[in-house]
Amino acid sequence: MSSEVAIRVEGVGKCYAIYDKPHHRLLQQLFPNARPWHREFHALREVGFEVRRGETVGIVGRNGSGKSTLLQIVCGTLTPSSGRVEVNGRIAALLELGAGFNPEFTGRENVFLNGTVLGLTRAEIEARFDSIAAFADIGEFIEQPVKTYSSGMYVRLAFAVAINVDPDILVVDEALSVGDEAFQRKCYARLEAMREGGATVLFVSHSAGTVLELCNRVVLLDRGEMLKAGTPRFVLSRYQKLAYAPVAQAEAIRAAIRAEDEDATASIGPSSGAAPAAEAIADAAEGAQFDASLVPLSQVRYVNRGAHIEDPHLETTSGRRVNLLIAGCEYVYAYRVRFERSASGVRCGMLIRTISGLELAGAVTATPSQALSLVAAGEELCVSFRWRCLLAPGAYFLN
Q1: How confident is the model at residue 314 (pLDDT cuts 50, 70, 90)?
Q2: d(Cα 294, Cα 291) in Å, to the nearest integer?
């Protein structure tokens, strides 16, 4: 990966004037010094980061956090209110669905229109048209007006054009979530090939698995502010913690995320004062072991919402605690849930993740219709999942 900067965002802000009544716009123009006729809404505040050439960077955040606004500023379709953006290289973008298409034009005509906007000559577009049409795979609809297209056909054609102009930088705003599964897989395979070929990719996605798979780094936005930038697993875990937090506690979590230092955490390692690995206890029945020094230092705890999970652990079917497993053997994942207030429709679950945070498998105790109708405050549930370890050798996290 080259150290050359493809995208540099420095102190970018975007402020909109919000008028309570339509005629206040006119009054603002006629009497600007009389009093403020509008309120200010800051979609972005002092956002700054760099994307190196050949890097894939994801942008995550809750709805309304400023992700799409930021991408539009990077692409040049919006002007920032403050700060600056520097882009080095040809940029192709998939922003709002169908953006850049004339609905009255056919698919073929829009390919030439869009290709021209992206900097290709007519001869270059003609040379690439067959590849574009083949990737879009919309058949005879390529000759029909795009106003007759479904949302999936829109995005197929738009993506096909964007990737076939050989962009140095590709910007994608959640557009691929519209296509069917087969097309999404084809798109992600092409993104991976472009990345390996040295292209820079900047995209917004709500799919944690996609971000983990594709990205080198992730930027977390919330309420127009960049809270954190770092490795995918670190940033996504903080994003999920914020997304699932009660509204009353969101600001405290935002402050904690700002103050947190990724370098101060590690994926797995010995804790201070932990027993040495030599003291691992062998399980005679199944060959599994318990290593007291194998402790997750980057554990993420979500905000308490009325029930507290205690003592999550793995054990053999005979009840011996283990954390070094033997493939093919059966184990039990167990924990207790203490309820601080009454709850209805209660189900319990588990999830296995890779150390990068990719979700592999999980289970729940019941379907929604079979959930416990009521658990009273003060009660405690003992939860256990019996499962066979069919994981490849490696380190894993359990939620």
Answers
A1: very high
A2: 6
